[in-house]
Amino acid sequence: MVEVSASILNVKGENTIQTLYNLETAKIDYFHIDVMDGQFVKNNTVDKMLEYCEYLNSISNLPLDVHLMVKDVSSYINSFLVFDPNIITFHLEAAESKEQVLKWIKTIKENNIRVGLSVKPDTKIEEVKEFLPLVHLILVMTVEPGKGGQKLIPKTIEKIRALKKYVEDNQIEVDIEADGGIDAENAEEVKQAGANILVSGSAIINSDNYNEIVQKLKKIN
Length: 221
Description:
The chain is of the alpha/beta class. It has 8 helices and 8 strands; from the N terminus they run βαβαβαβαββαβαβαα. It has one domain: TIM Barrel, CATH 3.20.20. It has helices at residues 16-25, 46-59, 73-81, 98-110, 155-169, 187-193, 202-205, 210-218; strands at residues 3-7, 30-36, 64-69, 87-91, 114-119, 137-141, 175-179, 197-200. The chain is globular. The two termini are 12 Å apart.
């Protein structure tokens, strides 16, 4: 089954509560929380995402899908634990060593939260293979992380396809999430490549009918 994780990065402050409610009633599966520190990526969304998580904890029971695009992963894991997210995903590229990756995985698991590991478009799948049995999800960035509204990079589709083949060949149970530039036009190709969770922000938020676009993203032709 394909699930949709709605990025709330571009939700406007004055309509926040109503927009979050409309997303939930459109039957999204997760709220995708894009946490940027202004160091690992250019933009800084920390305060905004903390505020939105507080809203969501008080008005919604939908799971939070926290995506840390940060350098100091340990600190931000601690900052978002309080919201009891379903999953916390960090970037492989933020780690200085294999030991650091293992430490972050352990910390998240010890708090009974699912672990996600993310890779940028230019990071090779080979670099994550050893960690696949230890995590619940691999997040393949289909754009360069750091801002919303970008176009999907075509070569990342092949990365998803290669990852899917590897996990099937090795009988590894792991979700494959794709994030960046995903809309109703390219979603089918991303799903056919092997992604079972689609992150979509602008395509939903900028549409006139949230329910219609969410159902299009979920539907497998």
